[in-house]
Amino acid sequence: MSIEKLQANYPIRTRWIHFPLHPETPPQGKSLAELFAGRDITPMRERMKALMAEAGLDYGERSHTYNSRLAQELGKWADSQIGGEAIHDALYRAYFVDNKNIGEVDELMSIAESVGLSGSEARRVIENREFKGAVDEDWQRSREVGVTGVPAFYGNDLVVVGCQPYETLEKFVLHLLEMNSAKNSAKQEEQ
Cα separation of 128 and 173, whole Å? Predict the structure, then answer.
């Protein structure tokens, strides 16, 4: 996958910032045909499948969109747990490959357990909405920096939105590294 390749090749740090993609989606989800009513979704589906394949990601035959709010809160909690970063790949697979409703607490518990996290702890965190405030802050930050879709890559007030080929992300990272180098040189000259 592109992110792992970038991390292997460049000194970058990634951090998940959540974004409200279709937050109005009801708990039971919504069919893609309903979400994109009046539009032929076949070309959209094929484009997504091609983009995901180019990025080295599986992409299933999704028929629905589901509300990801609770999954985002679970992800924030998982990031605070040892080994919890694996939740993001598991959530991706559940949603984009297996067409699972990631808005259901039982499904989220199962996903947490699949990556070695405590299902009962995940349930408690979700039901008590312990990371609601943290996700609210992410949503606000996403709006402030101009994120309009997912995935989005942000650094130095620049953003790249959407599933991008590795080469595009590499150019973005190289530009950010150049900017940081220039900033560091300027600071050294001031001293």
Answer: 38
Q: How many CB atoms lie within 10 A of CB 148?
A: 12
> What is the domain extent for residue 81?
14-146
Q: Assign residue 19 the CATH number of its domain.
A: 3.40.30.10
Q: How far is CA 138 from the centre of its chain?
A: 12
Show the tokens assigned to 71: 């999954």
What pTM, to 2 d.p., does this model score? 0.84
pLDDT in tens, 108-154: 999 999 999 999 999 999 999 999 999 999 999 998 988 888 888 88
The answer to the question of residue 173 being in a domain is no
